[in-house]
């Protein structure tokens, strides 16, 4: 049997995306002929695809496809077992082809996708062939398509691991600048991880639960600050704008007036002091919104503004209507393995 160099194995693996030992075996059977080894990988593949389908696929790529007029966008998460395969050109092209297919077919979940036909084949058969060639289990796990008739859509993918789509309604004359703004806000959302567009979208039960938890955390921090002799943090009454009713704000304003009166501040200057205090009160009492609601977060390109204020400054007609964020492998239970032991096992040591 011909000796196979590590260089040849590496070249075949990069070309095919197949596993290391599969490449070595194919080259041995092909007596070092790279093209023949590629054929052998394809011929041997389908029988192995079923075995690989049981392996955990938690790596991969998030991919976005946006049409030319920014009125339709599709985002998919296609998983592989290893980061190595996720960087392979064959896998990258596969994710692009699947994303385009999802957009064309309008699929919204994996089960629906598996029933479609792609390149003249049943999708499952098509995917099995790719599993065989690439040498790892592959899963088209998540997909979404967003479209609009009276606005635009844009998105952003960070290193193939985090993807964001944003849709906005806007005036016809504002579409071009809205497209640009949405890209910037999507980049921001990829990093800051908001879960909803507005505080109005937060579940009331979640708000109430977090209200108690946040206050308890700050009280605990203050105990340590007392011990260290440092200034204490303000303890909020509330954590979301949804809790700041007109009555709550009016009561807060009355308390501020009482404090100013106790400080002997002239009443004629209260109207210059109170607006700033109200703004600070709202900021202190909306910590949950600042963590989870996109519009309430500080905008990274101008941290003196919220995202909502930055959007309004761009154009008053812009209104965010849809937000989707995918994070690679989120929700998948990964199997921890000793990589060195796994390699040794594959090499028969």
β content, as a range? 15-25%
Total strand segments: 10
Spatial gap, N to C terminus: 20 Å
Mean of all residue-level pLDDT scores: 88
Total of DSSP H or I helical runs spanning 4+ residues: 14
Taken from the alpha-carbon principal axes, the silhouette is elongated
**Low-confidence parts:** none
> What is the H/E string?
HHHEEHHHEEHEEEHHHHHEEHEH
* Strands side by side in the biggest sheet: 1-2-5
The radius of gyration over CA amounts to 28 Å
What class would the helix/strand composition place it in?
alpha+beta
Q: Assign a percent range to the helix content.
A: 40-55%
> Major sheet, described briefly?
3 strands, antiparallel
Concise account of the structure shown:
The protein has 349 residues and is an alpha+beta fold. The protein is 50% helix and 18% strand.
Tell me what you see in this structure.
Helices cover 50% and strands 18% of the residues. By secondary structure, the protein is an alpha+beta fold. Among the domains are: 6-52, Orthogonal Bundle (Helicase, Ruva Protein, domain 3); 199-327, no CATH class. A hairpin with a 3-residue loop joins β6 and β7 (162-169). α1 packs across α2, α2 (20-29) crosses α3 and α10 (246-262) packs across α11 (270-284). The two termini are 20 Å apart. The mean pLDDT is 88.
Topology, element by element:
Layout: H1 6-16, H2 20-29, H3 34-52, E1 59-66, E2 72-80, H4 83-86, H5 89-105, H6 110-114, E3 117-118, E4 121-122, H7 123-134, E5 139-147, E6 151-158, E7 162-169, H8 175-192, H9 204-228, H10 246-262, H11 270-284, H12 287-292, E8 298-299, E9 302-306, H13 307-314, E10 319-327, H14 339-346
Antiparallel strand pairs: 1-2, 2-5, 3-4, 6-7, 7-10, 8-9
């Amino acid at each position: 049997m011909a000796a196979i160099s590590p260089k040849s194995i590496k070249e075949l693996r990069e070309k095919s995306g197949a596993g290391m030992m599969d490449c070595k075996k194919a080259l041995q059977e092909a007596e070092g002929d790279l093209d023949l080894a590629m054929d052998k990988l394809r011929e041997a593949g389908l029988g192995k695809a079923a075995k690989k389908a049981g392996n955990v696929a938690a790596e991969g790529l998030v991919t976005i496809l946006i049409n030319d007029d920014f009125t339709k966008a599709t985002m998919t998460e296609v998983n592989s077992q290893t980061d190595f395969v996720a960087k392979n050109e064959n896998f990258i092209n596969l994710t692009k082809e699947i994303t385009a297919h999802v957009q064309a077919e309008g699929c919204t979940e994996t089960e629906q996708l598996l029933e479609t036909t792609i390149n003249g084949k049943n999708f499952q058969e098509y995917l099995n062939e790719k599993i065989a060639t690439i040498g790892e289990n592959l899963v088209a796990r998540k997909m979404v398509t967003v479209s609009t008739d009276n606005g635009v859509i844009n998105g952003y993918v960070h290193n193939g691991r985090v993807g964001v789509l944003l849709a906005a309604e806007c005036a016809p004359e504002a579409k071009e600048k809205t497209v640009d703004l949405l890209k910037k806000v999507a980049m921001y959302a990829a990093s800051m991880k908001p879960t909803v567009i507005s505080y109005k979208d937060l579940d009331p039960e979640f708000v109430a639960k977090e209200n108690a938890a946040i206050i308890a955390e700050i009280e605990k921090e203050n105990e340590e600050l007392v011990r260290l002799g440092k200034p204490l943090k303000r303890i909020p009454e509330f954590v979301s704008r949804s809790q700041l009713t007109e009555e709550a704000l009016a009561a807060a304003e009355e308390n501020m007036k009482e404090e100013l009166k106790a400080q002997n501040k002239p009443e004629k200057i209260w109207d210059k002091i109170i607006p700033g205090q109200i703004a600070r009160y709202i900021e202190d009492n909306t910590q949950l919104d600042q963590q989870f609601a996109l519009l309430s977060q500080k905008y990274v390109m101008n941290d003196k503004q919220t995202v909502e204020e930055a959007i309004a400054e761009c154009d008053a007609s812009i209104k965010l209507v849809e937000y989707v964020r995918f994070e690679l492998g989120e929700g998948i239970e990964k199997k921890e393995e000793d990589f060195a032991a796994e390699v040794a096992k594959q090499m028969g040591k």
